[in-house]
Amino acid sequence: MEPLFEVVVFLAIATLGAALARKLGLLAPILLVVVGLALSFVPGFPQVRLDPDLVLVGILPPLLYVAALETSVPAFRLNLRPILLLAVGLVIFTAFAVGLVVHLLLPAVPFAVCLALGAVVAPPDAVAATAVARRIGLPRRVVTILEGESLINDATALVLLRVATMATIGTSVGVGDVAWEVLVATGGGIVMGLLGVVVFGFLHKRITDPLLDNAVSLIVPFAVVFAAEEIHASGVVAVVVTGLGIGHKMPLLMSAASRLQIGAFWRLVRFLLEGLVFLLVGLQLREVVRDLDEPLGFLAAITGAVLVTVFLTRFVWLFPATYLARLVPRVRQRDPAPLAKFPIVIGWAGMRGVVTLAAALALPLTLAQDRPYPRQLFIWLAFAVIVATLVGQGATLPAVARRLKLPPDDPVQDALSAAGVQQQASRAARERLDELAESAPTAVVERLRRVAQERTNLAWERLGGTERETPSQAYGRLRQEMIDAEREVFRAARDSGRIPEEVLVRAYRDLDLEESLLRREEES
């Protein structure tokens, strides 16, 4: 019972921390890391040692899967060049830069193991990027690039870590070995991901029960990861490919009830896992510092050197990658050079997270011929990078974004585009209604025509100013009052015994769905 009790305690703390962060206007990941750091030194508080396999196979796949489900495939494809430059090029550049710096400061340690540390700290975290970028209102394209980078860069880092680890334990590694590892990891991951789209898309399309659809959706990321790992392919790539494919085809694969239920389910899973992940990262501090025996001055020097290298390499890579590509006329014509403030904010958003810590804990215990190396120091360096980037860069990212005054997405253009498409959709709906009008009473047909017209009107109303209440807003306000009155009548009837509980549940479900639609229209 004790492990289960600890899990419940951690989830409760993560939930309370997220609620407090919203109350204080802070970013929940930052607050939860700080809370974890503080709790790690509370006497009697449970000590937690993260299992790398639990993180890489148990926690990361569902978080990557839900992020991929919500990623726009057209937007991802449109930004593929900057995403790959960051997710592949920058990870390799950072890994070699950090490896070189650490090797210069620790010349007795082979470069291969220093490169392994570089691979550990190189990739920004998928959870951190998604959790922070969306909540501070960064422009849509910046969010797409950050999310796309964080979906792929773990695969690059883990492949590089695997190759470097092979060298550290005495396995001969040549150019052919590296190429084969990359081919198997990336190519195998893509193949397994596409297979996941086919298999689970087939299942989703034939399942009509929303509960079963939800259950299958929960199984997908784990099944894909296990299948990819069986052939030594990248589970990260496989999960991302499957998530992108299923998410893109979701309107054709699932019923409306399934999509609503799956959306709510994955929002809850992401909320709980994100909170738990950041709390657990903070809780590792006592475990990480316990076995450190390096002199304080040297520890501070090497930690500062790694932090500066990780920070600077992102900017050193970003600006040439952003502007040198525009020297090619075809690229410049298709995608003009952005203002400097865009690569600055993307550079500032390089937060590391739990994957870095899990990869550090997976470093080999000894080198070839059982030679020791400062493994605990390397784990500390990875932990320091996580805390410094999460708390330092993550906490200041909103201020940096405000200071740079990034031009936000144009809400008027968004509303105009939505209204134009909605008008086309309503026209198509009316044409379909005209084809079927003879099969229904005239009053029903007229009522449906009014519904189609009201949806068009609502879309165009969003283009107006906010000084005066629109007809749709007045409708929403009054209908909300009516729904509240209906709920009270049903509740009173249940309490007096005039209707059974089952009738109340069905009535509340219908009223809740209508209220949810009203609230969605208010928020949009």
How is this structure best described in words?
The chain is mainly alpha-helical and 524 residues long. It has helices at residues 2-24, 28-39, 52-69, 73-78, 80-105, 111-121, 126-133, 140-168, 175-206, 210-230, 235-253, 256-283, 285-290, 296-323, 329-334, 341-348, 354-361, 375-404, 411-436, 442-461, 471-495, 501-523. α1 crosses α12 and α19 packs antiparallel against α20 (442-461). It is globular, with a radius of gyration of 26 Å. The two termini are 45 Å apart. 35% of the residues are buried. The model has no long low-confidence stretch (mean pLDDT 86).
Compute the CA-based radius of gyration: 26 Å
Summarize the main sheet: none
- Structural class comes to mainly alpha
- Helix content, binned percent: over 70%
How many alpha or pi helices? 22
Q: What general form does the structure show?
A: globular
Order of helices and strands: HHHHHHHHHHHHHHHHHHHHHH
What is the percentage of strand-forming residues? under 5%
Compute the number of strand runs. Answer: 0
Mean pLDDT over the residues: 86
Are there runs of 5+ residues with pLDDT below 50, and where? none
| Cα distance spanning the termini | 45 Å
